[in-house]
Design a protein that fits this description.
Elements lengths: L1 H14 L6 H7 L1 H17 L3 H15 L2 E2 L4 E2 L4 E3 L5 E2 L4 E2 L4 E3 L3 E3 L11 E2 L4 E2 L4 E3 L3 E2 L4 E2 L4 E2 L8 E3 L4 E3 L20 H29 L14 H8 L1
Helix pairs in contact: 3-4, 5-6
């Protein structure tokens, strides 16, 4: 048990540069407190001490601002940074080496009993305020951006952002920890598509101008040939 506690403390130093001493982690980190209390409440839950498990989880919520149902299955080296407002529902499953930031919800979308909350595989990072909803699976080493709303499976090593969440391209090293799930080189496919459409429209305007100029050179008079041109540079800046 003490080896597991030491492991949980070491994880804080790996993922939070503000941590200075083990004593500081043990006394001042609500995510660490919530996890310890969850280990106890989950042990009671699986031994069919349901009311006592729920009461201990309720106490942990009151002390830390983090709500973890005692039925949740959590792997090793789990870290909740800051923690306030985190909610993790009963049938959620969390693998090893996962990280959650404040305001994250792992919620259900049905009143039916049975599996109704997300499954996080190993190495998942979820940014502040993100909502992962329903019995979906977030793949290994996936990253969910802050305030994203995810309602579909996310594959391994992918990055998802937005409302509703969509996948973006990232070429950062697989498995590299990203604070707040921020990928510095993330390439939004929707933005890429919009840039392509803007560039195509500008190119089309140029071709139309060339055609009109040639028709006028041949002596054909065209009414209303002068139209407002698309400002591609301004539109591209808006998309960025």
């Amino acid at each position: 048990m003490f080896e597991r506690i030491k492991e949980e403390i070491s994880v804080v130093f790996e993922r939070d540069p503000a941590a200075r001493t083990s004593w500081e982690v043990v006394t001042c980190y609500p995510g660490f407190h919530a996890l310890l209390m969850h280990r106890l409440s989950h042990g009671l839950w699986v031994r069919d001490c349901k009311w006592l498990a729920r009461w201990l989880a309720h106490l942990a919520r009151w002390l830390t601002g983090i709500e973890i149902h005692p039925g949740v299955r959590i792997g090793r080296r789990f870290f909740i940074d800051h923690g306030m407002g985190v909610v993790i529902g009963e049938t959620a499953e969390i693998g090893d080496d996962c990280t959650l930031y404040h305001g994250v919800t792992l919620g259900g979308t049905t009143w039916n009993k049975g599996k109704r909350h997300p499954t996080l595989k190993n190495g998942v990072v979820i940014g502040a305020g993100a909502k992962i909803l329903g019995p979906i699976t977030i793949g290994e080493n996936a990253k969910i951006g802050s305030n994203a709303v995810v309602v579909k499976d996310v594959p391994d090593n992918a990055t998802a952002i937005g409302i509703p969440a969509r996948l973006v391209e990232s070429h950062e090293a697989t498995g590299r920890f990203a604070a707040y799930a921020v990928a510095r080189d993330a390439n939004d496919p929707v933005a890429k598509a919009m840039h392509a459409l803007i560039d195509h429209s500008v190119d089309t305007d140029k071709r139309i101008d060339q055609i009109l100029a040639e028709l006028q050179r041949l002596g054909l008079k065209i009414e209303g040939a002068e139209t407002e041109k698309l400002d591609g540079s301004s539109l591209n800046r808006i998309v960025d």
